[in-house]
Design brief:
It is a single chain. The chain is an all-alpha fold and 131 residues long. It has one domain: Ferritin, core subunit, four-helix bundle (Ferritin). It is built from five helices and no strands. The protein is globular. The two termini are 28 Å apart.
Length: 131
């Protein structure tokens, strides 16, 4: 569950450092709040955090690492490319959250995932305005 959220946080943080544009700073702060909400669930259900002890932008999963590296490289080229990277990461996040929501049975998990999906849809609209 946590790896789904790490992607947008890590990409938003990297692009916020590159571009001094509110959408990236706001997105990074928002994604950190989302990650904190998931952290509560991980603690509650005794699930190990796959990101624990890892540096920002470092992933044990090779596919996540490649996605992160590609999107940060893409987003570093121009503001329009950064917005396009934001669009891609939010669309990916929405799909992942939807799949996890379909599999979730606990009410608190379903609530958090639904809220995260709505927030990702809001982020997507914001990035689309820049793209």
């Amino acid at each position: 569950m946590n790896a789904t959220l790490i992607r947008p946080l890590a990409v938003a943080a990297a692009l916020a450092a590159r571009w001094n544009v509110p959408i990236f700073r706001t997105s990074a702060r928002s994604e950190q709040a989302h990650l904190n909400a998931v952290g509560v669930l991980l603690d509650r259900y005794g699930i190990a955090d796959p990101a624990a002890g890892r540096a920002a932008g470092s992933f044990a999963n090779a596919a996540l690492q490649q996605l992160y590296d590609r999107l940060v490289k893409q987003g570093s080229a121009s503001l329009a490319a950064a917005a396009a990277a934001g669009v891609e990461i939010e669309k990916t996040d929405i799909a992942d959250l939807g799949a996890r929501l379909a599999d979730a049975s606990n009410a608190d998990v379903r609530l958090v995932l639904a809220r995260l999906a709505r927030a990702s849809q809001n982020h997507l609209r914001a990035f689309e305005r820049y793209a």
